[in-house]
Fold this protein.
Amino acid sequence: MERIAIMIDDVSDINIIGGGAYIEKHLAKGLTAKYPDEVKVIYKKYDWNYITSTLDELRQEKIRLIFDLSYWPVNYYQVKLFTNNLKLSEIDFLLGESLYYARRLKVKTALLLQGMGLHKIKFAIPYNLLNYLKVKKNLPIDIFLNTRNKIIYTIYKGIRESLISNFIKHSKIVARIYGLSRGQLESLGLGNSKKATVIDPPVAVEKEILNMRKDVSKKKDFCVFYARLIPLKGILEIPFITREIIDITGYKELRVLIIGKFPDTHLKDLFFSLVERLNLENNILYKGYIPRENFEEFFNIISDARCVIYPSHEDSFSVAVLEAIAAGTPVIAYDIPGLKSVYQGLDIVKFVREFDIKSMAIEATKILRLREDEYNNLIYNEKTKKFLDKYTNWDLVVDKYYKDLFAFAKNYNSISKT
């Protein structure tokens, strides 16, 4: 019997992580539940003893393929492990755990890209940085905060990702590359690669979210933003968008709820200083982080909201946008490649040019001013229904990955080194 190993991150509490860990959790759980005899889970643990013993187990079990649910080479933990335990013979570990295992087992690997290709890259420079430089004179905030961050971001998300995408495109060890959207693969220069594909659908959310949907008459009079609370997800633009909406509508009682966790106190203090500067203390309400296990509390807020304001500069797919659609709440987002390639054509998602704060406020205002029948038509229409029938079906997602993976597992029993 052909078997594959699914490689996932070793996280103790997946609820505190973002959409990437959510996808890992559901794919791993679904594959092992439906196909327990064909699938084995292994973890990305940065311990040479664990790595050695796991390799021995996989050899005995005749694993034919390694499926990495979140390929992310040259990360902090890999570098730390390598520098603390210097072994030049193991230096290829830095190219990714799954490739390291595959080489030693003489099998192929399949990679799911989640944290890469979050925006276009042009001449090894992230396109969101280029867009920012074009319009920075008209922006009230520097989302990169300083020049040093811009340089680091260019190296890490521009040069590094360009090199990595080119490497996996030509590596003989990599049999399959899975993206979460066509926009993501095209951003990485993998759109025309025969080994790269997007499973249809690549992910899903819980069908139970659909039960939380509400007609506009039952919704409450607030907007919501939820994501990782970092500048590249748009958190520092939220106060300026809120101020624009208030100035356009004259509705001084507007509330915008913020859900999520700030990575540090410096960024949190900066955000609330902007809120204070724009006199929005009574308009922007910080709800803090709500763990996913508090399902009803979280999705009651999302389904109660009149719209989700989502000025993200980085996304390959966005589980958050999919959740909002499932909960029956319109979304206003920037027109970045990953999001547009998935959600364009749905009336419930409105796109504006990246960094266009005023246009985002105008689109939010239009939604707030819709008549009841117009608003409900955004939520309840045949195109959105068909979309959600597919994207709330984790069994369908799991089965499609399974069929594609095992087609490769049967075809590739050995490799030649890159």
